Amino acid sequence: MVLTPKPVTPAITTEVAQKMGVKEVVAQIETPLTDDAVRTKNLQIGTAKVANTLVKPGDTFSLLKASAPSTRRTASSLRES
Fold this sequence. Notes:
The protein is mostly helical and 81 residues long. 32% of the residues lie in helices and 0% in strands. It is elongated.
């Protein structure tokens, strides 16, 4: 499987973010892709759920809540690997 990055238009401008008090990127992650199809699918699903998330000053972000699988198996639920 080949993943191709796609440009994303930001929901807010740098100027708007600075007015909110945002000063820096506080977290980012990189992980290697492997030939494990389930892992790759989970990375795609998880990334789609959290990519470009803005955590405003004073807010809390929960990766667990953001990536929680649905109660029924759907195309957007993580797989056991």
